[in-house]
């Protein structure tokens, strides 16, 4: 019975790919180690996910000096056939709206 409870409590709605994309959208100059720490994955896993996203056309890595900067293609569509036609920007906006709401909640003005 505990295996069933553990399995049920361990899943989430968003994949790590979605979380990495949202992290990059929030801060296009973020470092892979910061993405990994925020999401709770290894730096190597974050690097692999960024490569997947780049290969699929969701983002572009731009080298500026010693740092990577990322540019997201907001018109790229979500991959699953049930979300066909929905741009990735819709997902990003949903989470940016959440973050903006949290910022406003602490703002007395």
UniProtKB/TrEMBL annotation:
Upper taxonomic lineage: Bacteria, Bacillati, Actinomycetota, Actinomycetes, Streptosporangiales
Organism whose genome encodes this protein: Nonomuraea corallina
InterPro entries in the record: ArsR-like_HTH (IPR011991), HTH_MarR-typ (IPR000835), WH-like_DNA-bd_sf (IPR036388), WH_DNA-bd_sf (IPR036390)
Residues of the HTH marR-type domain: 16-63
Membrane-spanning intervals of the chain: none
CDD domains recorded: HTH_ARSR
Family annotation (SUPFAM superfamilies): Winged helix' DNA-binding domain
Protein name: Winged helix-turn-helix domain-containing protein
Any single Pfam family the record assigns to this protein: MarR_2
């Amino acid at each position: 019975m505990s295996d069933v409870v553990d399995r049920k409590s361990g899943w989430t709605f968003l994949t790590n790919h979605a979380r990495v994309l949202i992290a990059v959208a929030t801060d296009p100059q973020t470092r892979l180690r910061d993405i990994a720490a925020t999401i709770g994955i290894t730096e190597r896993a974050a690097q692999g996910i960024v490569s997947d996203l780049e290969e699929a056309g969701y983002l572009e890595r731009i080298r500026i000096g010693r740092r990577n900067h990322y540019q997201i293609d907001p018109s790229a569509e979500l991959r699953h056939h049930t979300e066909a036609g929905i741009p990735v920007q819709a997902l990003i906006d949903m989470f940016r709206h959440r973050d903006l709401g949290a910022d406003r909640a602490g703002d007395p003005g």
